[in-house]
Design a protein that fits this description.
Elements lengths: L1 H26 L30 E6 L6 H14 L4 E6 L9 H10 L2 E5 L3
Parallel strand pairs: 1-2, 1-3
Length: 122
């Protein structure tokens, strides 16, 4: 008998909680925030036009100093110099990491270079 009474009391308590929750949910609207936030408009930037030839041009190879990529950067510069001997290949290190701006480097490339290969890692 005690088991039945305990079971009925427990069922009544659970039913009361469920019913109270349904009434509270039906009373008003719940305001929630979108976890994605406000998505900015995407500005599309077209690729630069390709030059007719690389002969006599200066191309910068910009290393953003991703971990353990210096041997690759040096090999890339050497291979490009061997494949395109009439092109001046300039290897430079960017100040700071990938996300930090380096306005002096970009100004130098615009003033002295005809193009750039920017290495980002991975």
């Amino acid at each position: 008998m005690k088991f039945v009474i305990r079971w009925l009391v427990g069922a009544f308590v659970i039913a009361s909680v469920v019913w109270a929750g349904m009434v509270a949910a039906a009373d008003g609207k719940i305001k929630v925030l979108n976890p994605r936030g406000i998505m900015p408009a995407i500005k599309q930037i077209p690729m630069a036009e390709r030059p007719d030839t690389l002969d006599g041009k200066t191309i910068y190879i910009v290393d953003t100093k991703f971990a353990n990529t210096k041997p690759f950067v040096n090999a890339l510069r050497d291979n490009l110099a061997a494949a395109y001997p009439k092109t001046n290949w300039v290897g430079v290190d960017k100040v700071g990491g990938y996300m930090q701006d380096d306005p002096n480097l970009w100004a130098e490339i615009k003033a002295k270079g005809h193009g750039a290969i920017v290495l980002l890692g991975h």
